[in-house]
Automatic annotation (TrEMBL):
It comes from Halalkalibacter krulwichiae. SUPFAM superfamilies: D-aminoacid aminotransferase-like PLP-dependent enzymes (SSF56752). Keywords: Aminotransferase, Pyridoxal phosphate, Transferase. The lineage of its organism: Bacteria, Bacillati, Bacillota, Bacilli, Bacillales. It catalyses: D-alanine + 2-oxoglutarate = D-glutamate + pyruvate. One of its GO terms (biological process) is amino acid biosynthetic process. GO terms for molecular function: D-alanine-2-oxoglutarate aminotransferase activity; pyridoxal phosphate binding. It comes from the Bacteria. Its cofactor is pyridoxal 5'-phosphate. NCBIfam families: D_amino_aminoT. This is D-alanine aminotransferase. The keyword Transferase applies. InterPro entries: Aminotrans_IV (IPR001544), Aminotrans_IV_CS (IPR018300), Aminotransferase-like (IPR036038), BCAT-like_C (IPR043132), BCAT-like_N (IPR043131), Class-IV_PLP-Dep_Aminotrnsfr (IPR050571), D_amino_transT (IPR005784).
Length: 276
């Protein structure tokens, strides 16, 4: 098993990291997770675009071009012989003595690894239980940063309550999941939080919205209050790793139960058709 460190492929067992990397001190870095189907990364162009946008929002330079990055990532997939799985890649701001104030002189450090994806069959067919809790994260959730403590804390809280995902409530409105976006269905219309600073604009979310519109579903991107959950016909989450996972129950700050409904199933089938 190999990993990437800057522009080198290194055996995982021999990989080392610099002590003064700002990724360690400040979580000062950004990342992407892309899914590999039949040896090919899905929507890599959108992942690279989002990585570039995260870098710009954080005033972080790219150490080399997207083309080089893609070549390196494809090389890693080949080397690790990944047919189906996930590829994780990140940029930290680089190495310099610890100081909140960065100098703009460090060179960002690029790392990447591959890992198997989880078995999704049961989750996609029967759905998941989600835990509604407060969104305790910062106000730049649009940036895909390594700083994930808010997400990590609510994910643990949801698991400790027997759920597979945390759904987040900011000031009475639902934003997204701890590592996914949320959609509700009511009378065949899809509802999801708009891509503001309060959510990560998921690649799966973007692909799904385009797909739904193509098949004449109406998609409303507006914030909705938590109690709307009680009146929805169907609900599901989207992410690179779970694709589209129906929600069967909501617990925590509110209780609701859903069937895996026709709109969710239809969109799951149409999404599968996009995959290699
Ligand atoms: N998580 N919202 C948050 C907060 C996320 O962390 C993610 C992805 C998403 C969905 O985005 P996408 O469809 O681009 O995967 C939404 C990744 C998979 C992770 O952190 O592992």
């Amino acid at each position: 098993d190999y990993i990437i460190y800057n522009q080198e492929l290194v055996p995982r067992s021999e990989a080392t990291i610099q002590f003064d990397d700002r990724g360690y001190y400040f979580g000062d870095g950004i990342y992407e997770v892309a899914k590999i189907y039949e040896g090919k990364p899905f929507a890599m162009d959108l992942h690279l675009k989002r990585l570039r946008s995260s870098a710009e929002k954080l005033d972080m330079a790219f150490p080399f071009s997207e083309t080089t990055m893609t070549e390196l990532l494809l090389h890693l997939l080949q080397k690790n012989n990944v047919k189906n799985g996930l590829i994780y890649f990140q940029l930290t701001r680089g190495v310099e003595p610890r100081n909140h104030l960065y100098t703009r002189k460090s060179i960002p450090v690029f790392t990447a690894f591959t890992q198997p994806s989880q078995d999704l069959k049961d989750m996609q067919k029967n759905g998941i239980d989600v835990w509604l809790t407060d969104d305790i994260r910062w106000l730049r959730c649009d940036i895909k940063t390594l700083n994930l403590l808010g997400n990590v804390m609510v994910k643990r809280e949801s698991a400790d309550n027997g759920c597979q995902e945390a759904i987040l409530n900011r000031d009475g409105f639902i934003t997204e999941g701890s590592s996914s976006n949320l959609f509700l269905v009511k009378d065949k219309v899809l509802y999801t939080h708009p891509a503001t600073n309060l959510i990560l604009n998921g690649i799966t979310r973007q692909v799904l919205i385009n797909l739904a519109k193509k098949y004449d579903y109406k998609v409303v991107e507006e914030p909705f209050p938590v109690d709307v959950l009680e009146h929805a016909d169907e609900a599901f989450i989207t992410s690179t790793s779970v694709e589209i996972a129906p929600i069967k129950s909501v617990r925590g700050q509110l209780s609701a139960n859903f069937e895996v409904g026709p709109v969710t199933k239809d969109l799951q089938n149409k999404f599968k058709e996009l995959l290699p």
